[in-house]
Design a protein that fits this description.
The chain is built from 5 helices and no strands. By secondary structure, the chain is mostly helical. It has one domain (2-94). The longest helix has 28 residues, at 67-94. It is globular. The relative contact order is 0.12.
């Protein structure tokens, strides 16, 4: 229940910069939960990780981690989740044949 609310939160009570930051926090946890084998694309994984702030070394932030980079990463993380969900549904539908 809490997880679903977190996924649907638009952060409308925040200004745009803070919304973007909140989405990067969400993207960070989504990236950690992502099954790398299911994604099967180490280059895409590394590109997504480059767009999310590095929580391992928070003071060693990428210089190129700008608003535009965070924005595109947030969009891609949402699209990737939808893609993987649909791929799993299609695989399940055709696995009975």
């Amino acid at each position: 229940m809490v997880e679903e609310r977190r996924r649907r939160d638009h952060f409308l009570d925040l200004n745009m910069d803070d919304r973007l930051w909140a989405n990067m926090i969400r993207s960070h946890y989504d990236l950690l939960a992502l099954n790398k084998e299911e994604l099967n694309d180490p280059v895409l994984y590394d590109l997504l990780k480059a767009g999310v702030l590095d929580w391992e070394k928070p003071n060693d932030r990428l210089n190129q981690s700008t608003q535009a980079m965070r924005h595109s990463t947030a969009i891609q993380m949402r699209m990737l989740a939808k893609h993987l969900h649909l791929e799993k549904k299609v695989r399940a539908a055709f696995s009975c044949y």
